[in-house]
Amino acid sequence: MDLLVHLIKKNEVDIYDIPIAFITEQFLAYIEWMQAMHIDVAADFLVMAATLAQIKSRMLLPQAEPDSGDNEDPRSAITGPLLEYMRMKSAAGLLSRRLLLDADVFVRAPDKADYAIPPEEIPVWADLFDLVRTYQQLIERASPRIGIEITHDRISVRDRMTEIIDMLEEKGTLTFADLIVSLGDRSGIVVTFLAILEIARLNLVRISQNTASGTIRLYAT
Question: N or C: where does the chain have the smaller number of CB atoms within 10 Å of the terminal CB?
């Protein structure tokens, strides 16, 4: 559902008039990306892909006569659950922003000026798929190794998280590309990507995106 919502918003699609062939193509492309990155594709993704393919095939069939009483839009099979999912997600977002009682921990409120987002950038609210797309582009640009491959000690995700947090504390902000492009090593890129996801999950960074260039930037919190 998250991927479907992402595709609909990204392509500015009317949820009541979903171009099912286009959305199905986009959905399957994302699954191929995940498989190419050796990410296990969950059953939910495959179920949704099968549902979209079934709706697409039903829409290719001749439609019933308008007065026959059997002209229900096949897309209603996903439109209803999708609308309900978006309502629940919106409600969850509102609840997550409500203040919790200061029961055990009391902190000094930070100066908002220290964390101001530049006017040319907009926040990216938990959009994993933008990170995945940027990661895919960087992986494709990474040059393959040529010659003898020497096995060396590989850094763990936890150690890479520490390195990234240290760099952010020193510089305040870094771009997604700054952390990955300089590596040139596919395994290092994978570890860095996983470290960024984990840091974001722990709310240790804020992520914003430039509206013009699409550059994804991390800010220390």
Answer: C
And the tokens for 123? Answer: 């926040």
Q: CATH no. for residue 188?
A: 1.10.10.580
116-139 residue pLDDT tens: 566 555 555 546 677 777 777 776
Q: How far apart are CA 129 and CA 141, in angstroms?
A: 18
* Percentage, residues of the chain above pLDDT 90: 0
Whole-model pTM above 0.85?
no
Number of domains in the chain: 2
Task: Round to whole Å and give the CA distance between 65 and 69.
Answer: 8
Whether residues 36 and 74 fall in one domain: yes
Region 64-71 average pLDDT = 60
Who's near 193: CB < 8 A, 6+ residues apart?
131, 135, 180
Cβ contact 183:160 at 8 Å: no
> Is residue 82 within 8 Å of residue 14, measured between CB atoms?
no
* Whether 82 and 121 share a structural domain: no
Domain region containing 195: 113-143+156-220
Q: Residue 163 — left, alpha, or beta (φ > 0 → left; ψ -120 to 50 → alpha)? A: alpha
**One domain for residues 162 and 69:** no
Q: Say what the pLDDT of residue 49 is.
A: 85
